[in-house]
Design brief:
single chain; alpha/beta; six-stranded mixed β-sheet; 8 helices; 10 strands; globular
Length: about 240
Amino acid sequence: MTQSFLKITDLHRHFLEGGRRHSVLNGVNLEVASGEKVALLGRSGSGKSTLLNLIAAIDRPDQGRVSVDGCDLGSLSERQRTLFRRRRIGYVYQFFNLIPTLTAAENIALALELNRFSKAQIKQRVQSLLTAIGLEQRGQSFPDQLSGGEQQRVAIARALAHEPALVLADEPTGNLDAETGRRVLELLHQLVGNRRGTLVMVTHSLAVASSADRLLTLENGLFLEQTDSLARERAGKLAW
């Protein structure tokens, strides 16, 4: 593997439930190369989304280190983490998380406005992305006027608008039917690949996971790497 773009070292995270300590991550280690696409499988509650939030600097680990492109996220202040996330990371949510009072175009533009792109740049990039996701005629539609698949396409465009180096996707097809999910997944891979970005996907779907370069299963707070068809079959059973 080439020099790691994302490096996770001895990562631990626990939560208190009913006064009892519940360990979710128990010393996770992971290295992802620049441009690599990695899928994370695991049962519900196995810690997949928790790990994604740690990588995104939304949450802090109890122990361990997350480094993105040589930057140790644990060394950053709250303000610095927010700016790093805003500039370097794109996040695709399972439930779209579009702002209901903004149009599709305005939702995409928001990431660009926060990163201080010029009005001309925003206009050009929003129109380019709407065309790329096949919604050039729906830019003025509000989220509740769009289908689930259309909303997810807008969410992907928003996450990639500022051309982040790292894209995180939490169950990107989880709320879509199989055919719509397939099309959305193809779009995600296409747009990330066009920008030579690094992609980390959390999913329950073995079909989604199989589209990645590497498949990992999170079990008992640790990763099991899957490298052949039998291992992938086992991972699929674990994922549900």
